[in-house]
Write a structure and sequence with these properties.
36% of the residues lie in helices and 19% in strands. By secondary structure, the chain is an alpha/beta fold. The strands form two sheets. It has a six-stranded mixed β-sheet with strand order 2-1-3-5-6-4. A six-stranded parallel β-sheet has the order 9-8-7-10-11-12, with helices on both faces. β11, α7 and β12 form a beta-alpha-beta unit. The two termini are 26 Å apart.
Length: 286
């Protein structure tokens, strides 16, 4: 595993550094988004890189960071593994036991937060979804718990989670109790029933919902598909074809990255549109 000092731009006087860590990490758009923000904000002394880091190497990586480091973005499988290495965790991150953002303070403290949850809420709000009476979640992985946390602030009624096993169902009901969301569960074989809800959040890996695309009904509400590559997914394309509103993974990625940039740099407002355009351009070249 490369050390923080062996990759990316060399440090110079006054330089500030940030990076995204995870495994695998080569696909991450985070460097594109953060660098676009730095360019727009005139932060030419800031750099943002990516590092392939697994759970076994995380502690050593963090221990090797010097005072030039301002923050880290965490993706799978590190969102929970980072927590014991932190001095404090926000209530948002604690609610789902997942940290995707670490900020290093001037006095050397490591503060953890989760910008996925407010990022989801902001992405939905951008499409005019501020409140729904019910919702459905496809899947039960780590992103699904963040989706439930977002729905705790958006959905006033029940949320039905469509899952593949009773163990996953029990896990989602447990998250519902913890987050004070009325979670009901159904078997994945009935996943097409989700499309009756005014808001559907698909949290599954690429290809998982492709077989459901032909089942999209004539009248649909809003689909939030957390994937961004490949895009559109078969489900998102079918949904758009029915005239339904679609929120994509890039929307989530940009909104959560906006919050990360603001926390790490101290800037009051990150340039959302410049970051979005950079992300769209990068995806278009893949």
């Amino acid at each position: 595993m490369p050390s923080p000092a062996s990759e990316g731009a060399p440090a110079r006087a006054g330089a500030r550094r940030a990076a995204v860590l995870g495994s695998p990490i080569a696909h991450s758009l985070s460097p594109v988004l953060h660098r676009a923000a730095y360019a727009e904000l005139g932060l030419d002394h800031w750099s943002y890189d990516r590092f392939e880091v697994d759970e076994a190497g995380l502690s050593g990586f963090v221990a090797g960071l010097d005072a030039s480091w301002a923050g880290l973005s965490l993706t799978m499988p590190l969102k929970r593994a980072i927590i014991p290495l932190l001095d404090a965790v926000s209530s948002t991150a604690a609610s789902v036991e997942a940290v995707n953002t670490v900020v290093f303070t001037d006095d050397g403290r490591r503060l953890g937060d989760n910008t996925d949850i407010p990022g989801m809420i902001a992405a939905l709000g951008e499409r005019g979804v501020a409140r729904v009476e019910s919702a459905a979640v496809l899947g039960a992985g780590a992103t699904a718990s963040s989706a439930l946390a977002a729905l705790a602030r958006v959905c006033t009624g029940p949320v039905t989670a469509y899952v593949r096993s009773e163990a996953r169902a029990a896990e989602m009901r447990g998250w519902g109790e913890r987050l004070e969301v009325d979670v009901r569960t159904a078997d994945w074989s009935r996943a097409a029933d989700a499309f009756e809800a005014p808001l559907v959040i698909a949290t599954t890996p690429a290809g998982t919902t492709d077989a459901l695309a032909p089942a999209v009904p004539e009248r649909v509400g809003t689909l939030f598909d957390v994937l961004y590559d490949p895009w559109p997914t078969a489900l998102a394309a079918a949904w758009s074809g029915r005239g339904g509103a679609v929120v994509g993974g890039l929307d989530l990625l940009v909104h959560q990255a906006v919050l990360q940039v603001e926390q790490m740099t101290g800037c009051a407002a990150a340039p959302l549109e410049a970051m979005r355009k950079a992300g769209e351009a990068a995806l278009a070249h893949r």
